[in-house]
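Practice problem 4.
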């Protein structure tokens, strides 16, 4: 399957890859110099990842900690910049370690360049990582 090139289609495709636990495929959607930012990151969690390699390392253990089942309430908003979208969604599933439910609301600002994700600002709720089993990043906390 060819990679979708519109930002909205690319983002929807990225969510399918996450649900399939295809982290390598998800990382392949990024530009080599992609930047992922977490403006609300709690202490000990990364605030900025620079480059595809850093993003891959960050996401490597994600499926072993959070088992995503769905992204309900997905809303993708176009902006005045055709390469940038604003996404509202929920990620639901379970925490693998504790089998507790996982339900996180996200807002993301995503910019695509040449059919790849170049920038992703992820505004997630840092209070959710206080739950046991959420630290897939191997942070210092």
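Answer key:
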């Amino acid at each position: 399957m060819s990679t979708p090139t519109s930002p909205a289609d690319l983002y929807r495709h990225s969510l399918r890859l996450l649900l399939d636990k295809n982290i390598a495929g998800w990382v392949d959607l990024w530009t080599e110099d992609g930047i992922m930012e977490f403006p609300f990151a709690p202490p000990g969690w990364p605030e900025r990842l620079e480059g595809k390699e850093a993003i891959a390392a960050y996401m490597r253990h994600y499926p072993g900690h959070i088992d995503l089942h769905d992204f309900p309430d997905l809303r993708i908003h176009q902006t005045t910049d055709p390469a940038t979208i604003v996404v509202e969604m929920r990620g639901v599933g379970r925490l693998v370690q504790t089998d507790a439910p996982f339900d996180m609301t996200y807002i993301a600002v995503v910019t695509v360049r040449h059919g790849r994700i170049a920038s992703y600002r992820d505004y997630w709720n840092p209070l959710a990582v206080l739950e046991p089993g959420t630290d897939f990043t191997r942070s210092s906390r």
